[in-house]
Amino acid sequence: MFLAFTGFEIHSSYHFFGFEKAVMYHRVAAYLLMGLIAFAVFWHFTTGEWRHYIPTLHNLKSQLAFYLKGIFQGGEHPFQKNIKRKLNPLQIITYLGFKLFLIPITVLSGVYYLFYKNLDGSLFPFLVDIGIEPIALLHTMGAFFLLSFLVVHVYMTTTGLRPTSNIRAMITGYEDLEEEQ
Amino acid sequence: MKKNITIITLLVLALLIGINVFNKKEYYNVKLEELRQQYSKKPVSPVDHAKLPVLDRPFDSPQDVTEACMSCHTERHKEILASAHWNWERVEYIRGRGIAYSGKKSVLNNYCIGSNANEQACAKCHIGFGMSSEFDFENARNVDCMVCHDNSDEYLKGSAMAGYPDRSVNLTKVAQSVGLPKKINCGSCHFYGGGGNNVKHGDLEDALASCERTVDVHMAATGINMECVACHTAENHNMKGKLYSVSSDNINRSTCEQCHTEEPHFNAVLNAHFDKVACQTCHIPIYAKVNSTKMSWNWSEAGKMKDGKPFHEEDEFGNHTYLSIKGKFTWGKNVKPDYVWFNGTADHYLLGDKVTSIPVQMNTLNGSYKDPGSKIIPVKIHRGDQLIDKQNRYLIQPKLYAAQTGDSAYWKDFDWNESSIAGMERVGLPYSGAYEFVETEMYWPVNHMVSPKEMSLECADCHRRETGRLAALAGFYLPGRDRSSVLDVLGTLLLFGSLMGVAAHACLRVVYFRKREKV
Questions:
Q1: Which residues of B are less than 8 Å from A155 in CB distance?
Q2: Residues A36, A68: one domain?
């Protein structure tokens, strides 16, 4: 969120910190995020958590139907979380897109942005030839998608058993599996 | 326990942010301090010329002074005879032309147009005596040592005396005072180019001889008080630095980084600007800070009379806005520069060049975003109109100056045709007998009047949507200035679409929930 806030200031969408401060904060926050991503990737693979993200079409329709219909009628979640699969099929597809496309596109274009001034044209002629414009546009596009993702993502947390139950899980990392049902 | 950890984490985070926001400490710039110490020691001459017997006598002519100089400095005149200050031109390789002579002899400008046929007046700024169309550029006796080396502040070249000193000058006193050139020596020509103070450059004027740091951090009398030659060093009379109003090549330039290095800032992002943005661009936010500079000159308006006599008009600062002999002018003070890409090479309108596009570019500063050697530099653009041969399509060198009427000079006779005939005959180009006026533009890189760092440009002066300083420079992506409006619209739609979708979904849930409650 902080990256988006400073980023859109750099994009001249509004003025808050001032351009110079915004650039500085954006860069610092970018390094922090990259550190976090490095840890996250490491964690996904060492713990085997990546298995949760193997996509499946099974139950995809019913999950969609739940959000479009069932949820209004007080219907039940068609998906039961368990140790092996903590994510419903819709979540899998969304998160997989987020982790395999959206984050890499935005972060890699950001990395290019960070370092393109230091690129040696004779060593990386192709990279230098891309120029900053397509990279910048890609980065902006990524930002819009990420923000939209954020909006929907946050909203979806309220679709749990109680509006706050999923949020608690996000923050503490623990979730009471719905055993009694 | 969990609560405590959360509170401590938040406190630490707040502290870190607080330190960052409220910490305004200035870093101590050791590099800059070293430069200050270095340049605060002014050079002391090992020789007191007042004690030399050879100078302790009356001089009949300024040439006698030059001979006296050469009696000790036996070889220096050779350096002068090879210099652009003396020859008024350089041999340069110019792309598209090959090896060419470029300088005041062959280049035209859009102020007083050109020196040919007007040497008598123009040579007030030649470092020689008695310039004329037949001037002997090999005769060292005519070198004017005093105009640059006088330290008595008394030397003065006479008006329209072809470079000879004014008759009031005490040559003995001047000869005995000589030393390294001071600002006022260089300024006696470079401040007054174009017929008055600050007319041409805009960033070089007599206020610099004694100014505040806000006008120029380097030359400020209340600051480090540097002389011109501190940067424009002149090993063997070969001056470092040149201006692209007459020069063309990218060698022996005087640069900021010769002292300040290529990484002068503490901030790496600022330093990264170095390869595309010249120091001057941010550090000279405005020029003509004290006195106005001429921004346009329309020769086509010249020649009007009041009661049959030439007249002049002035603005509130006392600048001429109209002169019958020269035409109409506009002036600018505290001017924001224009910005162009520049790679250190330039081309010029040379006498006889066919005019192919209008406005005629009196000089062309080469460069572009794609050229890795180019940087954005600040320039003064001087616009105007002047004579062109209607049939031959080249600019006309008119004869402007003469001592008396009836000598074809426009400033005396107000007849463009006669002055064109005389001028073109002098430069050896055919004149069809028909003239008209054509619009011209000339580019003057702005390099002086460096502001204190607090006054330099800020990021958002360029990195802003539409009104930035670089709004006119196209062909590259500038963060904060450029965007894809399609992408922005689509992105905004996506974002607000998501918000609306979520809100609608939430409303429906609430509505249905209530319904179920009731049931």
A1: 502, 505-506
A2: no
